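Backbone shape codes
____________________
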Amino acid sequence: MSGRAVTGASALALLLVAGAPPFTTGLGAQAVSPPAVQAGVSVRPDTVTVGDPFTIAVRVRVPRDARVVWPSIADSTADIAPRAPMVRRDVDVADSGRGAFRDELAEFVVAAWDTGQLATDWPPVLVVVGNDTVPVRLADARVYVRSVLSADTAEHVPRPAKPPFPQTAPWWERWWPALLLLAALAALAWWRRRRRQAPMTAAMPSPLGPYEHALHAFERLERLALTDAGEPGRAVTLSLDILRGYLVSRQPRVSLAQTSAELLAVVGEDARVPVPELVHLLVAADAVKYARRALDATDAHTLLRDARRLVEEIERRDREQRASEERAREDAARRARDGTNGDAPTDGGAASREPAGVA
């Protein structure tokens, strides 16, 4: 027994499965009656046009303990092809004299891709009751499909034929003169810019000396106004870094990696460096850097001024020493010239061998 297609939007027809051959169980060749299964199929709407979706609904009434196996409809090339997955749900439960039953409803949203009277060729629904299997046919669910064309296609006027593809040249063949001109203008602009920059490069001032660089760094530190911004410790640390950099340029044995004690050991014998003032600054800076000593704005400004004055004092002594050494060299050269001319005193040779002192 199979479900017969019902056209129109009427309710599902329930057909009693009858006339099927006897079923056998796995216990032997004993004939038993098939289980009572009712099924019905409806098509909504029963008349569509090509490509329009419509619904095929299948409803089966089976015993409560039966299992319904619905087929998988996935052939998208058939005349009636699915457009959405199957939707299955339980409808209701009814009791009769033969026992308890339940209803299952499955809806297939499909579309027809041919014209005329079409029918499905789907595999059957299988109802499994114990050891028995009852097939419910889904084939021959019919729908009428209208054509989307007009009744008289002879009145259709076709569009005029399109012209052949034009023979156009690539864009670079049309635009290469403009691209060449742009490249020439860019090269000319680059050349003129290089010519303007050449005199500016030649007129640039020479690099700053160690002393001028230190003063420039102190002026930048003052413009930052770190003390007024609430960072006096950072200002003192940066001022000591400027002082250390200046000492590196004046004393080859000094390094930025040296500790305060190592720095004092190196510059302690240098007559150009005021050691007491340097010790005071190093102790104050180490207290701020390592001991987290709190500073107010007045103390910070004082330490900044002391660091700059120390650089100025070392530079003054360095210039005096270099001037003294230059005068000593000139005196030695003059005495050597006088001794060569025979005008040097008798003790001039001994005097010329005395080393020049350090001021």
Remarks:
- The helical segments are 171-202, 210-224, 232-250, 260-267, 275-289, 297-340, 348-352.
- Residues 1-33, 346-359 have pLDDT under 50 and may be disordered.
